[in-house]
Amino acid sequence: MTRVQGPRPRAPADLHARRRVWVVVVGVVLVGAVLSATAATVWAQADRAHARLAFRSTARNVTATLATMVGRDSDFVAALETVLTMEPGLTERRFRAWYTQLQGRRRQVGAIGSAVIADVPAGGLARFLARMAAQKGQQQGVRRRVAPVAGRPGPGGRYCLISDTSVIGSLEPIAVGRLHRNWCDPTTAVGSVEAPVLARAAATGRLSVVQVSLPWIRTTLLEAPFYRRAGALSTAAQRRAGVLGWVIATFDTAALARAALAHNRGLAITLRFVNPGGGAVVVARAGAAAGPMVQRTAIGGDGRWIVTVRGGVAAAELAAVPGGWAVFGGGLVVTALLAALILTLSRSRERALEMVTQKTCQLRHQALHDPLTGLPNRVLAIDRAEQMLARARRAQVPIAVLYIDIDGFKHVNDTFGHAAGDSFLRSVAERIRRLVREGDTAARLAGDEFLVLLDTVTLDVAPELVAERLLELLREPYDLTAEIGRELALSASIGIACGLDTSAEQLLADADIALYAAKEAGRDRFVAFESGMQTAAQDRIALEMDLADALADDELSLVYQPTFDLLGERLRGFEALLRWSHPLRGPIPPDEFIPIAERSGLVRPIGRWVLRTACRQAAQWRAQGHELSVAVNVSGRQLDHDDLVREVRAALSESGLEARSLTIEITETSLMRDPAASARRLQALKQLGVKVAIDDFGTGYSSLAYLRQFPVDTIKVDRAFVSGIATSLESAALVRTLIELGRTLGLETLAEGIEDPDQLAALQRAGCDSGQGFLLGRPMAPEGVAELLNDRRAAIAAWAGAGL
Ligand code: C2E
Ligand code: CA
Ligand code: CA
After folding, report:
1. Which tens digit of pLDDT belongs to each residue from 577-597?
2. Which of 564, 577, 668 to mutate to test the pocket of ligand 1 (most atoms within 8 A of CB)?
3. Containing H/E element for 311?
4. Which residues have any ligand 1 atom within 6 Å of their CB?
5. pLDDT per residue over 671-701, tens digit each?
6. 667 CA closest ligand 1 atom index
7. Digit-coded pLDDT (tens) for 295-339
8. How far apart are alpha carbons 42 and 677 in whole angstroms?
9. Given the CA of residue 594, which atom of ligand 1 is nearest to it?
């Protein structure tokens, strides 16, 4: 058994378990985060690799498409260039035919037009123009005016002449009257751009590309020189000298790029041309890049065309792919859920454990504590006593047990009700609790019985001193204003037992014996246990057990002591006195066994038996013609219950005895235990017609005047006063006063224990009504009574028969 504390402190094991759960949760979160990150990285890498692959493949496709388109354009220009090289004096018509033929075979994307530019030295200008005019005239069948040449010659005094009619498609708005335009005139917008490009193309012999951005047009021109067939063309100077002109083609390269991109959204392409001996020209841009990837590819035979594809996975596709972040986020969510699950499970388990522990503690507390006062109960008290004893044995210092009982508590309950009783007991518990020190234990054993265990190892005063203090404390009035409207003062009795090499149970039993002794000695005191009490107590216990069987075993009997009228010395009746003939011990005096019967409660069934037997006996006497009454002693314990009135009535009706022939003797102290209840019950008895006598009068504390509230017929003056009446003046004076008062109050007086004639004489002189004692008649068995009655009858008959 363990001690029970109030609020449960968190046990180290609990903390340990909780810490362990947190370690697991943190571990799960960390591992989860790492795994999520790893998975996300792998996913993202795969994602990126996939995106890269997709981009590369798309970019390749786009580039290839564009390469094909650009290749065709270049081929087209090269084809025209070849035609013109082979046939330098090509007429416009022939050129147009070639153009249509070359182009017709393939639907050229973005092709706008083409033209031939003639390289004309300043000296040959007039001839060239005349030839052109003749050509045109032939062609159209009309004679046309030779158009003036606009502008000035370009670098090297050369004219780069382009015939407006040679242009298929329109490069620039044709001004009326300007048949030829000089693309090398640096003063014009076109010339400033074209002159160097044409010169470079002529010098390198390669295709040149130029982006023309004019207010009216923005286009890309592919320009290729053609030369005289005769003559070397290996140096730039030779090429410059041998150039006849340029073939140019114009393309809508933006449309070209758009077409190449087709449906590949999320990509952007840039098409550049690296001019020979010159900078790169951005020919076209198309699309919008969605990703960061770049692929640059050189296309075309000479690698001058460069395609840059930018982007990545198409935006729509990207959105469809959850990607690394989604994996990471998902992993974190799963981890969080797992951690929450672990926490929840451990929490609910913890809660369940806590509830079980709480419930167990509560149940244990309930099992080990008195519910009314909250003090440890008997079980716990004994457990603590055992623990203290074990400690005491080690220290070789005995422990002390104080067994406390409230004097007359029962009447608080009976008179004021259980609520008042409970409140009173709680106050008692509180006072006791206040007095004991930390190492000591206060407990409630039962009813009004409390216990204090003193650890004398740490006690610096004698246990008797603690008992003294307790008595003082418990004697102070209790405030029961709420319950009964006033204060109440009760005393207590304490039995003390000390021990070392004994059991807790034994120690409690010893203290109980000492408590009994304290009660016997008059209450409101403490008594320390002595070994002699042990045997007395054991005897008492043995007797109590035997007494329980005595009634059934027919060991009880009644003797009757006569009472006489003191004036005429007439037999008035008998007092029934109980006898117990113990099978082994022989006769046991009532002064010895009646208190035992009272303590054990046996006095009630025994008292019932006495009443019935005495009434039956008296009825028998009366039936035999003797005008006798019978007095029956009733214990205070019997008076505690309303049953008494019923039992008296039953005994009377059962026996047929007239009520007035029965006297109930009650001691003064019994009456005073609960005056109100006593008065009420005596009143009920009076109503039956039964007489009431106060026994042992003068030994209690009450005054005669106080007794007037009880419906009493007779007072029995105690033997103690009678025995001194002839020798002690005080006793004589007291007896005289009592008799006088009784007479004043209209009460009959009866003197007990008259043993010698002097006493009888004194009582007669004092005017005492009746008497009882060995002098007049000893208590006798019913047979003895019968004998007496017969003797008296004989005596009376003899007296009457004498007739004298
Ligand atoms: P009590 O009621 O005062 O009874 C009178 C006692 O005095 C009786 O003692 C009786 O034998 C004794 N006695 C009578 N005359 C003399 C005398 O001249 N000198 C001396 N020394 N004693 C005398 P007993 O029978 O031993 O009874 C003792 C007490 O036991 C009684 O005192 C009574 O209180 C109680 N008792 C006896 N019978 C019963 C009973 O049936 N019920 C109850 N509740 N108590 C009883
Ligand atoms: Ca009596
Ligand atoms: Ca008496």
Report:
1. 999 999 999 999 999 999 899
2. 577
3. strand 305-311
4. 561, 576-578, 589-591, 594, 610, 633-635, 695-696, 752-755, 772-774, 779
5. 877 788 899 999 999 999 999 999 988 776 5
6. 34
7. 888 887 677 888 898 887 644 444 445 567 777 888 888 888 888
8. 97
9. 45
